[in-house]
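Friendly challenge for the regulars: who can give me the structure tokens for this chain first? No prize, just bragging rights.
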Amino acid sequence: MNPRPFQLLLLAGALAAPVAAQPAAVQPAAAPPADTPSLAPSSIATPRAGQDLPSLHVHEVGPEGVLASEHEEPPRWVAWDRVQSISGPASADAAPYIAIADDLWRARTRLERGDIPGAEPLFELHQQALSGRTGPTPAIEAAGAMRCALWRGAWATAVRPMLAYAHAISAGTQDWWPRPTPKRDEIREIDLGDPMFFDDKLGLSPAIPPMFLNVPATRVLANEDWTNAAPAGSRAAQLAALYRLAATQEGQADSPAPLPDRPSSDEGLALVWDIVASRSGQPTDRSVARARLRERAQRPGPLWQEIWCKVAIGRSLVRETERDQKLLGIAQLLEPEARYPREHPYLTGLAMAEASVQLAALGDAEGAARIKYELIEAFPSHPALGWDAILRVSAAAPATAKDQAKDQGGSP
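First reply, four minutes later:
Bragging rights claimed.
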């Protein structure tokens, strides 16, 4: 198997996936509060080149973006990265946001041309100012930071911007000006319609499952201050609590972790809850969660959801004490690599690492070494290769027919 750059494998799913259709109709934005008068319509927002936007009449400005309209159309929000300047009475109110506009424009264009090291610091520059807010500007900032982290294989780092993005779009996107459709050869474009980027139906990012290994990045994530990860009581806050629990479980696998109540009316949160519960310290919780995950994996749905479920079931089974269950878990962990190795590189590599470590623990050193070798060959920069447990497993190439003949005393 020829090694391929891990980052290119990550983007293969986005390249192959269809772009989600834009909404057929645009709903008018909510009117500003009665005690907050809209800005005079003589204020004009000039868009940046290439944004497929006309000059717009400004109604309101804020951290969300610019609420603007064309002629007599209902106003819609446009993200600051798409705005070149504001003229007229609104210019004074817009002044505090011009730095955000310039930095996010530079960050986005750098990301689009593949300059990840140059883009990521600019996306992160205004995270604090946009934290906990909804609208297209917080969404593009969070989406960009998440893309950069994923591009360099930093899944744990991508969790926080993923949560910020989930909150940024939580009020809906119907009253946003649509972004230009990305060209398919510009695979780094921030395509908010890419179904592998975010599943609007479940409110989850398929690329960032709540599954981690006990590596330094996971421990940093578990020990971070999550107070401002999302506004208290919001859906994103519930999602943050489950992701943090998933991270902390890996550092204290022998201690039952307290689980919140299972969400009953949110399919996305319920899926994450089941995955976290399947890895918990309570055998009963694990068994019930596995049953739910099996049922979900058999339903019609996106392939990423099936992969999430099957890897979670495998990781749960290897936590049991019986050898037969561990072997079933190992078989489940190896299914993604056998059936769809390029659909979800992160989970496929994580599952291979877990299977290798478990085989070594069961005394199958040869099988463990073979799987680790295949992991290195397929995903040479996978973060799982920094896991202490996998570092203790030797890696050996599978024996060829020629090697076997030599071992048996035959002629090569």
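The two ends are 23 Å apart (CA to CA). The chain has a mean pLDDT of 82. Your move, everyone else.
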